[in-house]
Design a protein that fits this description.
Elements lengths: L1 H12 L10 H7 L1 H7 L4 H9 L5 H8 L4 H14 L2 H13 L8 H7 L5 H4 L8 H17 L1 E3 L6 E3 H4 L4 E5 L5 E4 L20 E6 L5 H13 L9 E6 L14 H7 L8 H10 L4 E6 L25 H10 L7 E7 L2 E3 L4 E9 L2 H11 L3 H13 L1 H6 L3 H18 L11 H15 L13 H7 L1 H16 L5 E2 H6 L4 H4 L4 E3 L11 E4 L2 H14 L5 H4 L1 H7 L1 H4 L9 E3 L11 H13 L5 H4 L5 H24 L2 E5 L2 E5 L2 H13 L2 H11 L3 E3 L9 H9 L6 E4 L6 H7 L7 E5 L7 H14 L4 E3 L7 H13 L5 E3 L6 H12 L7 E3 L7 H11 L7 E3 L7 H11 L7 E3 L7 H11 L7 E3 L7 H4 L8 E2 L2
Helix pairs in contact: 3-6, 4-7, 5-6, 10-12, 16-17, 19-20, 22-25, 25-29, 27-29, 29-32, 31-33, 32-34, 34-35, 35-36, 36-37, 37-38, 38-39, 39-40, 40-41
C-alpha cells in the first residue's frame, strides 16, 4: 500500500509543463506516520525553520515543550502544514540536504523523486545535527592531535608529514606466510587482499619494538581527519592500550563514556550521537595501540562474555567485547602488538607484519630528514661504509635516533661522522643520551661544548640514576605509566622532565588531575632500567639477573598479566630467552652496558670493582643459560650435516651475546652448538641481527650451512654476514627482501672462496641484473649443486644469462627459475643450453609464460639430453600442440622420469591423447 502511494505521489511531486505545482502539504499528510517514525532529530529542523523566518521563536518553544521525540515531530508537521506550501517544501528540503541526520529518509526522498523549486533552492540549509557536528569535531581534534610527532627532545615537535615514511607492510597468513605487500593504507580494509578470516573484525598489526606501529596509526588518524582515507568510517576512536592498566579493579564505566570521555565529547545531544553509533557500527573505526602493554589483576573470567552497551562494567571487559564483536559488531578495528603476542584466530580478520625500512624506504626517509643534498649524501656515504649502522636503520625508531645524532654532530662539529663508529644498539642509545644531555647545556655562541661522553654522564649522574630507578620499579611490575607522585618520589625535577626522556600522556586523569607520564618509548624504559642495574652499587646478583628470570619463569609474570584466554604469549618453559620483549631489551642493554668496552665510561659513575663483579656474574649466567638453551634445541642428522633447528628466542640469545662484545662468549656459543647446519627460519631476524649471527658463527673452524629463509634480512643483512662467507657451503636467504644489490655482494664474496654448494634465493626482489650476478657465480664456482631462484623477476634477460652459465657446468643438479616472468624467448635459450649440460637432474620452470614454441625447443633438447630426470613446466601457456612435441621426444629418451604440465592450456579431453605416456603429467 505504501509503495503504491509513493508511486501515485511521484507524479504530483515532479512538476510537469502546464501542470499545477505539486502539493507538499498533501505529501506530508499522507506520509505523516512514516516521518514521525523516522525523524530522530528535531533540533536541526527547528534551527533552519527559525533561521529562514518560517518559524517564530514562540513556535520553536511550543515544539520543545513536548515530552517525546514523536510528539515533537507531529507538532512540527502541524505547524509546517498550517503555514502553507512553501514552508512544507522547505521542510522536505532540509530532510534532503542534511543526510547525516535524516539518513533513514533518503530512500523515501529518492522514491518520491523530490526536486527543489528554484525559490527553495536559494534558501540556506545549515547542518546543526549533533551527529554531523560531532563528526566535524572528531576530525578537527584528531587532525590537530596527529599533526605533530614529539621528538625525543620533548621541546621539539615535528610535522608528521615531514617525518613519516613508508615501510614494508606485509599481509600474512595465520602461519605468517606472505600474502603480498600493502602498498596503500586503504588496502588494509580491502577484503580482496589478505583476508584470512571473514568472521573476524580485527586487523592485527604486529612487529618488533620501534618498527613503526604507533606512527602508522597516527598516519591513519591524520588521513581520516583530512578525509583522505576512503573506507566509509564516520567515527574514529583511538585508544592506547596502556590506559586500560590504569583502571582499578572496582572501576566501571559504560561504552558511551569510554568512547566520549577518553576521545572527544559531543557538544550536543550525546545520547543521539551514541544511538547513531549503535545503529551504524560499520561507520566506526577503532585503533588499539600496544595490546601487549596491558597489565592488570582484573580477572575476566568473573564476568559474562556478553555485556550491554548501556550498563557500566570494567573497561577491560568493554575492550574485549569490542574486539570479539560482542559490542558494535561490524565496526572496523586495528589492533597493534609487538611480535610474539598471539591473539586467538577467531577475532582476526587480517594479519599485517611490519618489517621496517627497505633500502629504498631508507633512502626516502634520509631525503625527508636531511633536506640539504650535501648533508644527505654525507650521511648516505657514511651509512654505506658502516653496515652495522645501516642495519640498525632498518628499524624506524633506531634510524630516527641515529639521524638525530648525525644532525647534532653536524651542528656541533660540522661533521656527520659518529664518534667511535657505533656498532651495537647499546652504543646507539648511549649516544642518544649523550646528545640529549649535550643539548640541555647552555653553550657559548662562539664556543662548542667539548665535554667527553664520560664527563657528560658524570655531570648528570643523579638525574640518570633517578630516571633509572623509576624505570626499574615500573619494569619490575610491568608498569609503563607513572603518576606525578611517582615522578616526584623518584626525585625527578622539572628540569629533568624538560630533558624529554619522559613525556606526558594524553587521555589520562591522574590523582587530583595531575599529569601522568611515560618514557618516550618502551625501549628507552628498558635502557634506563639496565642503566640503573649497572650504576646502583647495592644491586646484587638476584636483582641484576631478575629480568632473565622473568623471561624464564612463567609463574612470575602470570599474576600481573591480563588474563585473557585468547591472549597467548609464546612460552618455552625454563628458556631464559623466550619472547617477552620489554624484559628482553632490558637484558640486551644490560649485556651492552657491562661489556668490556663500556668500562671506561662507567668507572666515572661507579667503582670499577662493582662493574667487574657485575660483569663476572652476568658472563657466568650467560654461559650457563646458553648451554641450557642449546641443549634444548631440536637436532637432526642429515647427509653430511648435523642440523640444529632454532626458535625465535635464539635470536634474542644471539643479540645478548653480541652486545657483550666478548669473543670468549662468542667462541663458547659456537662450541656448544655442536652442529654444522644452523637452521634459523621464521625467527623474525632483522638485518641488524646478522651482526650477531656473524659474531658467533665466524668462530666455527669448519665449513658451515646457514639457513635464514623467511626472515627480514635484506641487503644490509647480507653485508653483515661478510665474516661468515669463507665458511658457508650452504646459504639460504629466501623470502628476505633481497635485491640486486644484495646479490652482487653475494657474488663478490662467494666467488672468492668457491666452496658454496647450495644457494637459495627464492621469493626475493631480484631482477635480470641480479640474475646475471648469480649466473657469473655459477660460471666461476664449480662447486655449486643447487640454485633456487623461484619467485623473482629475472625475465628473459636473466634466463639467457642462466642458460650460458649452466651450459657446461660440471656439478649443478637442481635449478629453479619458476615464477620469474620468463617468456618463450628465455625458455628457448634455456632449452638450447641444456642440450649441452650433463649434470642438471631437476629443472623447475613452473609459473612462467612459455608457449608451444618453447615446448618444441624443450622437446628437441630432450632428444639429446639424457641426464635430465625431472622437467617442470607447470602453469605456462602450452597447448595440446606443445604437449605432442614433448610426447614425441620422449620416444627417444628413456632417462627422463617426468615432464609436468599441470595447469597449462590443455583440456581433460585433449589430455586423453597422451594417457599412454605416463611420464607426461597433465592433470
Amino acid at each position: 500500500m505504501e509503495g503504491q502511494l509513493c508511486a501515485d505521489l511521484k507524479i504530483s511531486v515532479k512538476k510537469t509543463p502546464g501542470a499545477n505545482p505539486p502539493s507538499f502539504i498533501a505529501l506530508l499528510k499522507v506520509y505523516r506516520e512514516l516521518l514521525v517514525g523516522r525523524i530522530r532529530n528535531t533540533q536541526c529542523l527547528i534551527d533552519n525553520l527559525v533561521k529562514n523566518d518560517y518559524f517564530s521563536n514562540e513556535d520553536a518553544e511550543i515544539v520543545v515543550q513536548f515530552p517525546t521525540q514523536a510528539d515533537k515531530v507531529r507538532k512540527i508537521l502541524d505547524l509546517v502544514q498550517s503555514k502553507g506550501e512553501e514552508v512544507s517544501e522547505y521542510f522536505i528540503r532540509v530532510l534532503q540536504k542534511v543526510t547525516d541526520a535524516y539518513y533513514e529518509l533518503q530512500p523515501w526522498l529518492e522514491e518520491i523523486g523530490y526536486e527543489p523549486s528554484e525559490n527553495i533552492s536559494s534558501k540556506p540549509v545549515v547542518n546543526t545535527d549533533p551527529v554531523s557536528r560531532y563528526c566535524q569535531k572528531l576530525r578537527y581534534e584528531l587532525g590537530r592531535d596527529s599533526k605533530f610527532v614529539m621528538s625525543y627532545a620533548q621541546r621539539e615537535e615535528m610535522l608528521l608529514e615531514e617525518i613519516y615514511s613508508k615501510s614494508i607492510m606485509e599481509l600474512v597468513s595465520f602461519t605468517n606466510e606472505s600474502l603480498g605487500e600493502v602498498c596503500q593504507l586503504e588496502a588494509l580494509f580491502d577484503d580482496a587482499l589478505g583476508l584470512i578470516n571473514e568472521d573476524g573484525e580485527t586487523i592485527y598489526v604486529f612487529g618488533d619494538a620501534g618498527i613503526g606501529k604507533s606512527i602508522l596509526l597516527q598516519k591513519i588518524q591524520s588521513l581520516w581527519a583530512r578525509k583522505e582515507l576512503d573506507i566509509g568510517a564516520k567515527f574514529f576512536f583511538r585508544f592506547p592500550c596502556r590506559m586500560f592498566s590504569c583502571f582499578k579493579e572496582d572501576e566501571a564505566i559504560c561504552l558511551k563514556d569510554l568512547l566520549f570521555k577518553y576521545n572527544c565529547y559531543p557538544d550536543q545531544d550525546p545520547a543521539e550521537v551514541f544511538h547513531h553509533i549503535l545503529q551504524f557500527p560499520h561507520t566506526v573505526l577503532f585503533t588499539f595501540d600496544g595490546f601487549d602493554e596491558i597489565y592488570s589483576n582484573f580477572d575476566l573470567s568473573s564476568v559474562p562474555e556478553i555485556c550491554s552497551p548501556n550498563e557500566p562494567i570494567h573497561p577491560l571487559v568493554l575492550l574485549v567485547s569490542l574486539l570479539r564483536g560482542k559490542l558494535l559488531k561490524g565496526s572496523k578495528k586495528i589492533l597493534t602488538a609487538r611480535t610474539g603476542t598471539e591473539i586467538q584466530r577467531n577475532i582476526i580478520r587480517k594479519k599485517v607484519l611490519l618489517r621496517g625500512f627497505s633500502s629504498n624506504n631508507l633512502k626516502e626517509y634520509t631525503a625527508m630528514f636531511f633536506k640539504d643534498e650535501g648533508q644527505r649524501m654525507l650521511v648516505l656515504n657514511h651509512l654505506e661504509a658502516n653496515p652495522n649502522l645501516c642495519s640498525l636503520c632498518s628499524v624506524p625508531l633506531f634510524c630516527w635516533i641515529i639521524f638525530k645524532c648525525y644532525e647534532h654532530f653536524h651542528s656541533m662539529f660540522d661533521s656527520h661522522e659518529l664518534p667511535d663508529c657505533s656498532v651495537t644498539l647499546t652504543d646507539v642509545f648511549l649516544l642518544m643520551i649523550e646528545v640529549h644531555l649535550n643539548r640541555s647545556l647552555k653553550t657559548s655562541l662562539v664556543k662548542n661544548n667539548t665535554r667527553s661522553q664520560a664527563e657528560m654522564f658524570k655531570s648528570r649522574k643523579e638525574t640518570l640514576l633517578a630516571l633509572g630507578k623509576m624505570a626499574y620499579k615500573g619494569m619490575e611490575n610491568s608498569f609503563f605509566i607513572f603518576e606525578q607522585e611517582e615522578v616526584s618520589s623518584a626525585k625527578i625535577s622539572e628540569e629533568d622532565l624538560q630533558l624529554g626522556f619522559l613525556r606526558t600522556v594524553k587521555g589520562y586523569s591522574g590523582y587530583n588531575n595531575q599529569s601522568t607520564y611515560e618514557f618516550l618509548h618502551l625501549t628507552l624504559q628498558s635502557f634506563f632500567t639496565a642503566f640503573f642495574l649497572v650504576i646502583e652499587e647495592k644491586v646484587g646478583a638476584k636483582e641484576l639477573l631478575q629480568f632473565f628470570n622473568e623471561c624464564s619463569h612463567t609463574e612470575i609474570a602470570q599474576p600481573i598479566c591480563l588474563r585473557i584466554l585468547w591472549l597467548k604469549k609464546q612460552l618455552a618453559g625454563e628458556d631464559p630467552f623466550r619472547n617477552n620483549e620489554h624484559f628482553h631489551f632490558t637484558n640486551l642493554f644490560l649485556c651492552g652496558l657491562l661489556s668490556r668496552s663500556k668500562q671506561k665510561l662507567f668507572r666515572h659513575l661507579v667503582l670499577p670493582a662493582v662493574i667487574k663483579r657485575k660483569r663476572k656474574m652476568l658472563i657466568a649466567y650467560l654461559g650457563k643459560s646458553m648451554k641450557s638453551h642449546l641443549r634444548g634445541l631440536t637436532r637432526s642428522r642429515l647427509p653430511n650435516y648435523n642440523q640444529i633447528q632454532v626458535q625465535p628466542n635464539f635470536v634474542w640469545m644471539l643479540r645478548c651475546l653480541y652486545e657483550t662484545q666478548s669473543e670468549k662468549v662468542g667462541k663458547l656459543a659456537a662450541k656448544h652448538m655442536r652442529a654444522n647446519y644452523i637452521k634459523l627460519t621464521y625467527c623474525n631476524a632483522y638485518s641488524a641481527d646478522c651482526s650477531a649471527i656473524s659474531f658467533v658463527l665466524h668462530h666455527f673452524q669448519k665449513h658451515l650451512a646457514l639457513e635464514l629463509d623467511n626472515n627480514n634480512i635484506n641487503d644490509y643483512g647480507v653485508k653483515e654476514l661478510l665474516p661468515c662467507f669463507s665458511k658457508l657451503v650452504v646459504i639460504r636467504l629466501s623470502v628476505n627482501q633481497i635485491t640486486d644489490h644484495g646479490v652482487r655482494i653475494l657474488y663478490e664474496e662467494l666467488s672468492k672462496y668457491q666452496i658454496v654448494t647450495y644457494l637459495g634465493l627464492y621469493n626475493n626482489q631480484i631482477t635480470d641484473v641480479g640474475a646475471k650476478y648469480v649466473a657469473k657465480l655459477i660460471e666461476e664456482c664449480s662447486s655449486l649443486e643447487y640454485v633456487k631462484m623461484w619467485g623473482n623477476q629475472v625475465g628473459d634477460e636473466g634466463a639467457k644469462a642462466f642458460a650460458e652459465a649452466l651450459r657446461n657446468h660440471p656439478r649443478l643438479t637442481n635449478v629453479s627459475l619458476a615464477f620469474n616472468g620468463i617468456t618463450t624467448e628465455g625458455g628457448k635459450s634455456i632449452a638450447e643450453a641444456m642440450r649441452h649440460n650433463n649434470s642438471v637432474k631437476i629443472f623447475w620452470l613452473t609459473k612462467n609464460e612459455m608457449d608451444d614454441e618453447a615446448a618444441m625447443s624443450f622437446a628437441e633438447m630432450l632428444k639429446v639430453n639424457k641426464k635430465l630426470a625431472h622437467l617442470w613446466l607447470i602453469q605456462n601457456q602450452i597447448t595440446a600442440k606443445g604437449v605432442k612435441y614433448l610426447s614425441e621426444a620422449l620416444k627417444e629418451n628413456t632417462a627422463i622420469k617426468e615432464v609436468c604440465l599441470n595447469g597449462n592450456l590443455i583440456s581433460q579431453e585433449e589430455a586423453k591423447a597422451f594417457e599412454n605416456e605416463e611420464r607426461i603429467i597433465c592433470f
